[in-house]
Amino acid sequence: MLKPAEDGLCLDQILDPAALRTTLDALAARHGGASIEARQAVLAEIKRVNHEGREQARAMLSQDGGGTLCAQRICHLQDVITKALYDYASVHVYRVENPSTSERMTVTAVGGYGRGTLAPGSDIDLLFVLPYKQTPWTEQVVEWTLYMLWDIGLKVGHATRNVDECIRLARSDMTIRTSILEARFLCGERTLFEDLGERFDREVVEGTGPEFIAAKLAERDERHRKAGDTRYLVEPNVKEGKGGLRDLNTLFWISKYFYDIRDTRELVGLGVLSRREFNLFVKAEDFLWAVRCHMHFLTGKSEERLSFDIQRDIAAALGYQDHPGLSAVERFMKHYFLVAKDVGDLTRIFCAGLEDQQAKQAPGLTGVINRFANRPRKVPGTLDFVEDKGRINLADADVFKRDPVNIIRLFHLADIRGLEFHPDALKRVTRSLRMINAELRENEEANRLFMSILTSRRQPAIILRRMNEAGVLGRFIPEFGKIVAMMQFNMYHHYTVDEHLIRTVAALSGIDKGEEEREHPLASKLMSGIEEREALYVAVFLHDIAKGRLEDHSIAGAKVARKLCPRLGLSANQTELVAWLISEHLTMSMVAQTRDLNDRKTITDFAENVRTLERLKMLVILSVCDIRAVGPGVWNGWKGQLLRTLYYETELMLSGGFSEVSRKERAAHARAALGDALSDWSETDRAAYLKLHYEPYLLAVPIEEQVRHAEFIRETDKAKKQLATMVRTHAFHAITEITLLSPDHPRLLSVVTGACAAAGANIADAQVFTTSDGRALDTILINRELPDDADELRRGASIGRMIEDVLAGRAHFPEVIARKTRGKRKTRPFVVKPQVTISNTLSNKFTVIEIECLDRPGLLSEVASVLSDLSLDIASAHITTFGEKVVDTFYVRDLVGLKITSENRQTNIVARLKAVLAREEDEVRDKMPSGMIAPHGSSRRNRPVAREG
After folding, report:
1. Mean per-residue pLDDT for 736-757?
2. pLDDT category, 234, cuts 50, 70, 90?
3. Assigned domain for 781 exists
4. How far is CA 930 from the centre of its chain?
5. pLDDT 10s digits, 167-197
6. Could you give the CA distance from residue 504 to residue 493 in angstroms, rounded to a whole number?
7. Is 247 in contact with 343 (CB distance < 8 Å)?
8. Is 383 within the bounds of a domain?
9. Which among 135, 127, 35, 25 is positioned nearest to 84, based on CA atoms?
10. Residue 495 β-bridge partners
11. Cα(344)–Cα(251) distance, integer angstroms
12. C-alpha–C-alpha distance, residues 243 and 499, integer Å
């Protein structure tokens, strides 16, 4: 696209064409040009110069950092090699002393190679343009050249056609048309190449500009849709993703086709881009090429996805350093996303210029780009804005100069009128960002309009995203500008911080409009009764506004809210409410997922923090929206169930409805209710069964579940089985339930969790109870994977059999874990420092142990086994996974039912657990004896587990 002077390329350092020709001629003279020996010698020499040339290009990239230069150097290397092989074939292998007009051809570079840039792993696209009458000579030369390129190890795409075939196919196939558009002469008969170019311009391009533009923009939109339609994915595709190199390629294709230019800098003279915008184009292209070339060099292949595995290495190669609040890799990725945003700005500006040009040239045309069938009309209630075919535009060029508030008003009118944005309007916004200054930020009307956008009952997230992409949001709210394009280097967050905040607003809007009643029944029910709706929207929009600072982002975010909310028109009480919601925005989800919700102190402590029902309602809605906006697949029905449970338990306490009836009385009532439900059993069988269960079971398990368990145990006893499982699905919760009946054993939890890991199942929760005759009745909830109930039931039954096999000693789960995880995504790019904390204040009855570390298969099983070795009784455990990080909470007592108060023992527990947490993923080891069936009467048991994956 851009062709710097050759002295800046240092091409002779890559490969000198004359020197290579001389070497190949000498090899031909020594071995005989067409001999096998000569071919082998030539191949060896070409491999050598290709390897050395690429290594030199890599060294120069590390030295000067020029991404575009690197791509051009590799292209030069390929040019010299391709020309040398063609010349060798036509001179030494298939030499014709007096060639006829049919014994000639043109070797042409097309596609990306035609643009004069190649990444280290790029395909080499060649078009051999042949004469109309062909001879065996052309076929032989093409075949020899291609086989040599393939033998070097290059990926070569090729086509052999005459000019007529090229023109015919270009008319009907847009991909071929684009390929020929970028054709570049390499070697051979130049007249054939010139003939192709002249006919292509005359017979294909002329008069088809709108058709080509529409096709390329539609192709781009479909590519974006497949990539998630956002440029803010934390593992972007540098080539094909939104804001990547292909978007710049598309601009160049359209420019070359429509404006008949050969270099992007010509767009400045045409008035399509300003000098500053052209420089932005050059810098964006150079940065993206540098990233892509480093990726290919690092991975040794055509890797286009900037995955977590290589982001640290690329950041180091580009010279990024850690800064307070942001690591080197996070600073690099923020730069990447800012460049991607620049590419979006350039696309908007370019499309606006294109529409103006087409309107001047052909005002009567209709199509995807040209939409001037009707004259623009004034937007009702304003003289500064017009509606143009459903798109809002400026009435004249001085709209923003007359009143800078019009920058915000443009987006407000688009929202209330349901209008799209004309590219020219967004281009002028981008060029007017300097007008968004302190005076405009303090303007009462501007802030009123912004609050109207944020709290709109239509599509606030769409308008906010347009404001962000145009650069307005970060200028109008400078605190938001600091987190624009900021990524967090972890597997949990799928988007940059600014995109996450906008998606959180989108989630709230969906709940607010009643569109999420099935997915979020509680939040949808509560939303209509929220008194401080504006405050909730502001809190949702600002909850992560302070990410990337040294101070905890919840605390720092509350400070930002106290400063910003009065400017936005919120009262003092509303401001404090927003600040509280931001400071506590993680609390509810963390308590729900990592604490025992059956422990009354959990509810008491949470209720004391929340204090009012209004805060509780707003916090649960904020929590739902926050989790929903993290990324695809992060939210599931089970997280919703945990939040609902915490909400209802806390609501009871805040409203004074918490039962004061003693635990013993409630258990007796539950036992009587179970007896009534089993009225069709014989008196003897019923009396014997009611003696099986202890108080925790009777109080925690719903009566309908107790009846189902009773039938399950009865059938198992009739069949005289030691082990049995049953399976059912819960579609709404996205959960599959596996109930296990087994002889009790102190290590049962570690065995069952290990078996689930071996079966490839993510545990979402479990209830584990002991019966009075020494058996375990476990209900294990695993995350659903298959959409069809019948398929999911078969999967659940298979996992149940795996659990039975492991318990019976028929399977050895570490080997199965290794097979299941072979080839799966590793977490090695991430570092999570293992942490273990012990608290005696979170529960009245239990010591709470919380661990945090890098996740790996079988981790829960290993930790449970260590706790058993330490003679600790696990009363409940809650396992929460945030991408690559796992946070596990265990409620434990010693074997006589007391808290762990000894400092020496606490120190030993911490040391033993840290030793387990620090192990590498591939060092999962077996800690179980071969047979795990225990005799009746085993005492200490592991009880409820909550796992989320």
Report:
1. 80
2. confident
3. yes
4. 41
5. 999 999 999 999 999 999 999 999 999 999 9
6. 13
7. yes
8. no
9. 25
10. 233
11. 11
12. 14
Inter-axis angle of helices 637-654 and 613-628, to 10 degrees?
170
**Is the model more confident about 931 or about 151?**
151
Are residues 820 and 909 located together in one domain of the fold?
yes
At 278-290, the pLDDT tens digits run 999 999 999 999 9
Contact 393, 361 (CB under 8 A): no
User: Which residues are 893's β-sheet partners?
Assistant: 873
Collapse the DSSP code of 764 into the 3-class scheme (helix H, G, I; strand E, B; otherwise coil) and give the result.
strand
Cβ-based burial of 319 (10 A; exposed 0-12, middle 13-18, buried ≥19) = exposed
Query: Which of 173, 206, 239 represents a domain boundary (last residue)?
Result: 206
Joined tokens for residue 415? 């929202």
Identify the top-confidence range among 57-66, 574-583, 825-834: 574-583
**Burial class, 646, CB count within 10 angstroms (exposed 0-12 / middle 13-18 / buried 19+):** buried
d(CA 229, CA 234): 13
- How many H helices and E strands in the chain? 42, 17
Token reading at 456: 């709109």
3-class DSSP state for residue 728? strand
Q: What does the DSSP 8-state code read for residue 787?
A: S
Whole-number Cα distances in Å, 687 to 257, 672, 682, 710: 87, 11, 8, 12
Read off the tokens for 923: 């060092």
Per DSSP (E only), the strands in 372-517 are 377-378, 385-388, 391-394, 420-421
Task: Order the strands of the 735-743 sheet from edge to edge.
Answer: 724-730, 735-743, 775-783, 763-770, 945-948, 872-882, 885-894, 847-854, 835-839
Task: Note if the pTM is more than 0.70.
Answer: yes
Angle at 87 between CA 84 and CA 93, to 5 degrees: 115
Angle in degrees, CA 494, 498, 502, rounded to 5 = 90
Number of compact structural domains in the chain = 4
| Cα–Cα distance for residue pair 859/861, rounded to 1 Å | 5
Element (H, E) at 116: none
Q: How do residues 33-74 score in pLDDT, each as one tens digit? A: 889 999 999 999 999 999 999 999 999 999 999 999 999 999
- The per-residue pLDDT for range 507-564, each reduced to its tens digit, is 999 999 999 998 899 999 999 999 999 999 999 999 999 998 889 999 999 999 999 9
Is 704 part of a structural domain of the chain? no
Q: Residue 2 has what pLDDT?
A: 41
User: What is the C-alpha separation between 846 and 873, in angstroms, rounded?
Assistant: 10
Q: Which amino acid type is present at position 247? A: D
Q: What distance in Å separates the CA atoms of residue 633 and residue 625, rounded to the nearest whole number?
A: 14
Residue 249 in domain:
yes
Q: Are 231 and 288 in contact (CB under 8 A)?
A: no
CA separation for the pair 231, 124 (Å, rounded): 28
Question: Can you tell me which residue has the tokens 């420019």?
Answer: 255
Cα-to-chain-centroid distance, residue 620: 25
Q: Could you tell me if 24 and 159 lie in one domain?
A: yes
